[in-house]
Amino acid sequence: xxxxxxxxxxxxxxxxxxxxxxxxxxxxxxxxxxxxxxxxxxxxxxxxxxxxxxxxxxxxxxxxxxxxxxxxxxxxxxxxxxxxxxxxxxxxxxxxxxxxxxxxxxxxxxxxxxxxxxxxxxxxxxxxxxxxxxxxxxxxxxxxxxxxxxxxxxxxxxxxxxxxxxxxxxxxxxxxxxxxxxxxxxxxxxxxxxxxxxxxxxxxxxxxxxxxxxxxxxxxxxxxxxxxxxxxxxxxxxxxxxxxxxxxxxxxxxxxxxxxxxxxxxxxxxxxxxxxxxxxxxxxxxxxxxxxxxxxxxxxxxxxxxxxxxxxxxxxxxxxxxxxxxxxxxxxxxxxxxxxxxxxxxxxxxxxxxxxxxxxxxxxxxxxxxxxxxxxxxxxxxxxxxxxxxxxxxxxxxxxxxxxxxxxxxxxxxxxxxxxxxxxxxxxxxxxxxxxxxxxxxxxxxxxxxxxxxxxxxxxxxxxxxxxxxxxxxxxxxxxxxxxxx
Length: 486
Known about the structure:
By secondary structure, this protein is α/β, with parallel strands linked by helices.
């Protein structure tokens, strides 16, 4: 088989891996550009001057496609869809576990919503559009055509969607620095009348100086290699400000509010309750089983947890400790469901998705929350709020009061159903649209109706009784209570 035949076979397999609705249009485009594609497949065998001439031509053509065609057509299509009350939204492109769930939340509000990623991790691959295989093929055989491909992708998205939801690290086109949605992309989307919302997941916004100023316990305090995992440098601050001012609304939650200028505080981590139904309640006898699933142990304070367990075992307490890393999310859920207590993180100052999954399963969850305002409906929140200095005492309390753990777990399940379900996030997104999107009445009416239904349903979800404990988030920052400051 010749070089070109092999490349064409690989491209055909990549197209076969696309969602069903994409295959026909993509094949039609490939057929229309059969001759140029044959030349692309042979780029490595062309003289360098001809290869770069072709790439330059592709760049000019796709740039013209965006600015002269996609922007005006995208603006007209958005105006028409909003007037008819049938807006469409896109969630991308960082492969966050909850991306498909956020799209589902949008669909509850009446939006035609989908998720799209350019790469995936081992923990989740359940996205509407996954272009990883196409991107990898281009990287191997036609790297210079990645930018033109991204422009065509952006033009397609402008034609199809009216609301864009991105995380701060990347949009549909390559960032100009390590992190950040390309400013040119944001300008084009706004010129096309699109609504653009930006969200944080942690590493995409976290800067070292601001983090260290938060207090004794923070994510940077234990970082083994500053600059590797997060944006870190102060140079990212003006980049962040530029993105925020171009967006319809900049959004953040938890500790990430400290890094995004004028960010709206909105809890946007939804839980699929059907996937994590309440598990058997915590046992009242036998070893206390503690489950811990850190992605990076240094950011979770794992060694503090393990040191406390060693000391308690030395005192004669029976503790079973189970830790996993780098496994599919389904395995984490299974481990949590068999535990008596879930350990999230103890230095960051804001609970993560692990805490929500643990609570959804009806398990007591230990974590560190720096301030009550970082929690939705804090008076209902049953999290066991600890830092490394109070971790051992809190574990000792759990051992001595095991009879109370089932009630704490039951309140956690009710809390997640009320405030972190897909419905609850949909209600908050609907409020965000009402206040910032400038939608016409035809689009706003179904959003208002959906929000009202969620609020009414929330009132029917009962809370547990007798779950209160000495370590609630309402009591305030345990670090401040112990006299720790920055």
